[in-house]
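Z., the sequence and structure:
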Amino acid sequence: MQLLAALQLGLLALATPGLCASSGWGFADGTLSIQQKGAGIGGGQKQKLSENKPLAKPVTLNDAGTLKLLLTIQDDRAAMKPHQAFLMLKESETGLDISYPLSVKGNGKALVELNHKDLPVQLLAAKTPIEASLLIASFGASNGYNKPIFKLAIDRNPDDPLPSSHALRYGKLEEIHHIFKSDPRSPPVIISLIFTLAVLATLPLLAISWFYLGANANHLSVALKSSPLPHVVFVGSIIGLELTFFMYYTSWNLFQTLPVAAAIGVVAVLSGSRALGENTSTYTLRYTPMGTSASKPARAAATAASRRQYPLRPSPSTTSTPARPQPAAAAEKDTQKQGPVYHSQEKASATRSEAIDLDARDPDFDASLRSIGPVTPTPTLSRTSIFNQGRQQGASSPSGPNRADTANPSLLTLSSRTRISAEAEADFESLGRRDHMGRRFVDVVSLKQILSMRDEQGVSEDVIEKQFGLRKGVLATLGPKGVVAGVR
């Protein structure tokens, strides 16, 4: 009985390695051959491979040979296609390795071929044999296979140079030192001086142009007196902008310049609108051309005055000579002829009473009405009237107005108004012409400004006439201070 038990234990021990080997991936029918170039079919070396023990001697591969590995991959001793199958070559001294995938079919047949061209430069230069291992793995519970199966010795002619390696290698690179573009430098001093002199040379030309075109420098004191703070702040902001540009040119960068320029620009706009607003109305009245909104009221007033029609002949009631008073004796005589005078005591009433009725029947009153006769009406003498045309033509004279026209104050006022309106219209129409000597008529707004500048600000008449474009001597017609003044 003891002999039988020992025999069973021995058989179990011999079967255990086979069971362990069969529980995973492996291969069978492995064949390794080195086919030389030009040797023909069957001229190469062939060796059988075992999945449990590598070859005892290294396999030599020269530059004319091709290594060919052929085997059948199995899982639990059943031919099957794995998910991954590689032949890995590893150099023992440096530890470098490279893997070559096997071409596997559905029945487990796998094949891989190698020659010198497929090997990297590092393995071609190896002086010791390279270890070749087979890697097989897939999904599932089966264990993978990773064991060395042979060693490969590279036979290379030492006179032939190694091929250059252009493969992409990952590793530590050299440190990169970034070199940025240098900061911009100022141009040479001579270039800066040339452009500075060119800019400064334009200042005398600008001053000459101002004086030639009639720059109103005399009004500077008046403007500073009327609104000093806006003028000073506006001029200061302009100087500040120039200094900001100078700092940007010399030392500042763009981010330092923009906030300062924006702040000074806002101050310049606000102060400039207040400073220049004082002269807006003056320049508008002086330089506004005909046809704009500023000249339309004056043109409308002049046109309306020219269209107004006035009577050309005086009425008889205003030109007839008043009757001379009669002497007392003649008045008494007329009274005696007219009879006794009756003074009625009846008061005025809206209803006709008996006394009013008797008064209307007074024979003397009727006699007086009959003695007057028909009344001749005053002719209108319009352009289409033909009444008394012959006498009118005979009375008019081309030498000038009639004596009756000059004796009538109302008609004289109307004719003067017509004449002045025509002259004002001609004065406005001549604005802007070269031969225009200046304005003779001013509107109410300009007249108030002129009186304020002359009487309150103390501006001379020559400056006022030049500023408002008036004809020389027009302000003298207003008389001295106090004769004409503004009413508030």
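The first helix runs from residue 2 to 22. Residues 25-154 form a domain with the Immunoglobulin-like fold (CATH 2.60.40.10).

Let me know what you think.
H.
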